[in-house]
């Protein structure tokens, strides 16, 4: 990340703090959240959906043993492949995250942080079969194939509260679904993020 972009991000972060931490938080605040969960839960692997420009991968590749990222848009996937060519601990995948996630889950061998940010948000972002593939992502993560401890963070919680948002389940539906499968996990919403972690 260039020094100029880094400076802009720090200014956005400072402004966000001054404004009382409104939703949505800036990228720097989200990355601090990822690192906080990594440290508190002893997580070694990051799985991200929605590579986009690759800035999260860049910020996290030195923090996690392995980073996996899934991007639907061929344009962004191609740019990320160039950006991270030769980076041994970064593995990029192209496709619908709800369909690609099982392939990644099957190879995970350490406590994992899932950062789910692959939902369609207009503009240049790609749209798959669903605007929000979170059910497919969660089905893979909660499957018997996932044998490692994990934490799930779902970005843009505000979209899951909006009545009529196509393909976005309500937070209450996700909470019920998680409770039925893993009662040892708690769920909360903070900083525009749905957080699923050990109680």
Explain the overall architecture.
With 199 residues, the chain is an alpha/beta fold. The chain has one domain: Rossmann fold, CATH 3.40.50.150. 38% of the residues lie in helices and 20% in strands. The chain has 7 helices and 7 strands, in the order ααβαβαβαβαβαββ. It has helices at 3-18, 27-41, 55-60, 74-83, 97-105, 134-141, 171-181; strands at 45-49, 66-71, 90-94, 112-116, 150-155, 185-190, 193-198. It has a 7-stranded mixed β-sheet with strand order 3-2-1-4-5-7-6, with helices on both faces. Helix 5 (97-105) runs parallel beside helix 6 (134-141). The longest helix has 16 residues, at 3-18.
Q: What's the tally of helices?
A: 7
How many DSSP E strands? Answer: 7
Give average pLDDT, whole number: 91
Strand arrangement within the widest β-sheet reads 3-2-1-4-5-7-6
Query: How would you sum up the major sheet?
Result: 7 strands, mixed
Helix fraction, binned, reads 25-40%
**Strand percentage:** 15-25%
The CATH topology name reads Rossmann fold
**SSE run:** HHEHEHEHEHEHEE
- The parts where pLDDT drops under 50 for at least 5 residues are none
Radius of gyration equals 16 Å
Decide which structural class fits the backbone: alpha/beta
The domain count comes to 1
Identify the CATH class.
Alpha Beta
The CATH homologous superfamily corresponds to Vaccinia Virus protein VP39
Q: What's the overall geometry?
A: globular
CATH architecture: 3-Layer(aba) Sandwich
Q: N-to-C terminal Cα separation, in Å?
A: 35 Å
């Amino acid at each position: 990340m260039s020094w100029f972009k880094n400076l802009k991000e720090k200014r956005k972060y400072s402004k966000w703090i001054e404004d009382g931490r409104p939703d949505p938080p800036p990228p720097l605040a989200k990355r601090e959240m990822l690192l906080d969960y990594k440290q508190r839960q002893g997580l070694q692997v990051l799985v991200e959906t929605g590579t986009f420009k690759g800035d999260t991968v860049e910020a996290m590749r030195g923090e996690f043993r392995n980073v996996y990222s899934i991007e639907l848009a061929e344009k962004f996937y191609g740019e990320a492949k160039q950006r991270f060519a030769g980076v041994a601990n970064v593995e990029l995948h192209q496709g619908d995250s709800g369909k690609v996630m099982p392939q990644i889950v099957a190879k995970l061998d350490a406590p994992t942080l899932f950062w789910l940010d692959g939902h369609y948000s207009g503009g240049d972002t790609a749209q798959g079969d669903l605007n929000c593939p979170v059910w497919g992502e969660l089905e893979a993560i909660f499957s018997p194939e996932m044998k490692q401890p994990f934490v799930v963070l779902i970005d843009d919680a505000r979209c899951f509260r909006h009545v009529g948002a196509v393909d976005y389940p309500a937070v209450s539906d996700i909470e019920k679904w998680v409770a039925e499968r893993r009662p040892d996990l708690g769920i909360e919403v903070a900083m525009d993020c749905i957080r699923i972690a050990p109680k």
